[in-house]
Amino acid sequence: MKSRIEVVLERSLAAAREAGALLSDSTAAGTLEVPKDRSHGDLASNVALTMAKAERKAPRAIAEALVVHLDDPEGWVESADVAGPGFLNFRLTPRFWQTELAELSAADGLRVPDFGAGRRVQVEFVSANPTGPLTVGHGRNAVLGDTIARLLSGTGHEVHREYYFNNAGRQMKVLGESVRSRYLEEVGRPTEFPEDGYQGDYIREIAHSLVEEHADGLADHEGTAFRAAAEQAIFEEIRRTQDRLAIRFDLYFNEDVLYSTGAIEKVLAALDEKGFVDRREGAVWLRGEAVGLDKDRVLVKSSGEPAYRLPDIAYHENKLSRGFDEIVDILGADHIEENKEVRAGLAALGLAADRVRPVIYQFVTLTRNGEQVKMSTRRAEFVTLDDLLDEVGVDAVRFFFLSRKSDSHLDFDLELATKQSTDNPVYYVQYAHARIANLLAEAGRQGVELPDGAVAVEVLAPLDDADDFELIGQAAAYAEIVDLAARELEPHRVVFYLQDLAAGLHRYYNRHRILGDEAPGRIRARLAMLVVVRKVLAAGLDLLGVSAPDRM
RNA sequence: GCGCCAGUAGCUCAGGUGGAUAGAGCAACGGCCUUCUAAGCCGUAGGUCGAAGGUUCGAGUCCUUCCUGGCGCACCA
Questions:
Q1: pLDDT, tens digit, for every residue of A462-500?
Q2: Separation of CA A341 and C1' B56 in angstroms?
Q3: Residue nearest to nucleotide B73 (CA to C1')
Q4: CATH number for the domain that contains residue A67
């Protein structure tokens, strides 16, 4: 929407230079934006302010010169005024807005610039250890990662979604022992529950199903048999939860592959060869000073087992070797240091560590009845993501998780979320969509000819109200918002945009009785406009993975 | 002690690379349905943008130093 006026601005600057009103070598690096206060016009530019120094002239004088030399052959600008310290405020013509809307109504009218064309991006998210059901915290990760993947796909990237399945570590061993203990308990054998074992009911359930299947036939088995059963059961549950959220992965990457293929040893050998490794106290250390970390870190424990960060480096080495241009890691705040170590390790190996782009999200705190609920998988004090989905619903959960920037803590008040779920902003946006759908249906019943597909500017000529133009302007901002959200990996921008657009629609809907208009041409033009607004709402909600219902 | 993130209305939060009188939702108060969905709209009230300095035409935004909260700083993942 800005591009037309940017052209006018460029032409006017050139004209002013030619006329000697401006120094010819000065560069204009101003911004063009929709002013917060609409009384300032439809678009405002601060070029005059940014040029003031180079021009050695008062900003207002520069702005005046631009108004005098305004070059607008297409007739987009209704008026250009100098305001405040030197802002240039443009009011645009009906023709401008009608043209804008006509373009939006075209089949590819909402197309977002394909800045990712030809780029392969991997998004790694969730990656929860299969030691228990997904928690509310995992939910934030899942929804954030999935939506970032959608944003990247929507901007032309070739996206690969991956779940790093951490099935090789000590925690899995503890998991197996926990199940074994519950199993022995149930078949009446003496047992001692592991001190750091997983205490959740789901462990008992897994043990119980093993008793049903094998009676006490497994009593003399080692933990590994139990571990495999637990891993499978929990993994299936994780997948079920993801299905509810419509989240799919292209690949579940198993950590143990890194062991079986020798990738871990190779990475260690390479680091060693380059002199980044130290051996002392029976362990193998990554030399912090040499790789840009503040302290040394253990790569291989004195027990001979790799510490978690070594397979993690090997995993990222594997990712890079698959030729991705960018690797997005969705990580909780507690993993930021680890990611730094991984990138330092990659850089030390001479690999493109700068292709790894972490998206850090702060923790979700959960409150119930005004009290904070502590979440810990191990102590079984958690609310599962499934519970949350049961209580609040998929659309509301997704929308809520996305409605804060990832850097902010997210406070999920369960009482509020359940009790006031109808106040959830997601319904506000969906309602705007349903309202338009309903209006179009009513128009159909009244025999009004409905616009279908691309609409010609001539058809839109009856649009003459400032409210019409404002709504068109809001709808036209879609591509720019999505573009920014995708570049910055910030889905919350889409959420806030949709809320603004929905507010604009509701306001418009209350002020104008569309079907009651005495001019049939204007009814058709306005319906065409609302068809576009509905299209934008549906596209935006789809990016968030939220449904756009026709009836509510 | 060190590092990262946050601190904006009573509550939950928005405020690209500095722009005009700092916004939204919820909560509060007052209005609007015989007419396309009131899950909506309109209005009122609510702020020393954690504090103090600094940078400049201009700072919620950038710099410095503090204060408060969260998360890290394991031979746990």
A1: 999 999 999 999 999 999 999 999 999 999 999 999 999
A2: 40
A3: A337
A4: 3.30.1360.70
